[in-house]
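Sanity check. The docking grid for pyridoxal-5'-phosphate depends on where the pocket ends up, so I'm generating a full predicted complex first rather than guessing from homology. Inputs follow.
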Amino acid sequence: MSIQHSILQLTLGQRIDSIRNTIQELKVDNEVTLVAVSKTQPASLIAEAFQEGVTHFGENYLQEALTKQNTLKHLPIIWHFIGPIQSNKTALIAQQFDWVDSVDRQKIAQRLSEARLLSGKTPLSVCIQVNISHELSKSGVDEKELPQLAHCVSLCRGLQLRGLMAIPDPRLSDTELRMQFRKMKDWFDQLRQQYSSMDTLSMGMTQDYLMAISEGATQVRVGTGIFGVREK
Ligand SMILES: *Cc1c(COP(=O)(O)O)cnc(C)c1O
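Predicted complex below; grid placement will be based on this.
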């Protein structure tokens, strides 16, 4: 039975428990943070997942996220922006989110940093998104420009460089996928020697989070596996 079908029989709380148990059973050394990807899902389901102990939520679309954040402002949710970033949206993103996991160019990093400094809040936690599969139309910095972007983010006073994020090409075979997760882990280990604030390797979604964790992910972003199939 596909994941999509098997999860339909369970309640939200049971799906979250089952994901947590599966992660536990992998017995990896590092902690793994579960980010519930709540794009297209209503605020009521986010509140329900929060009651089940999930505190990190990921959103892709700014307007949609702002509405839900306003509805849920009584809850101490840790909000991640995980979608593509337009430069005219950086000010609001920097004010309204705790993390931005999808920084992929210098201009965006600098704008987020300036806006965050103006907001008077503590530095914004940032992951650099890497286009690990070298897809033409995909977000993410190319590997050869990654060291330079990491350097730039590390110099931004409004940002704290927390790590790397990637979304491998969904058409890859399991073997190729594993190789790309390994490549991300290598970059993570290499850059971490230089930037001690780095503690997060965000990779793995509903279909591949187990493999990602076994290859070193410290953060997984799960949408469908928690909330069910998204409506278009
Ligand atoms: C939608 C999305 C996810 C979650 O995908 P699922 O397959 O539903 O788990 C994770 N990360 C990013 C960046 C996304 O846009």
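Relevant for the grid: The radius of gyration is 17 Å.
Also worth noting: Residues 37, 39, 60, 82, 167, 205-207, 221-225 surround pyridoxal-5'-phosphate (CB under 6 Å).
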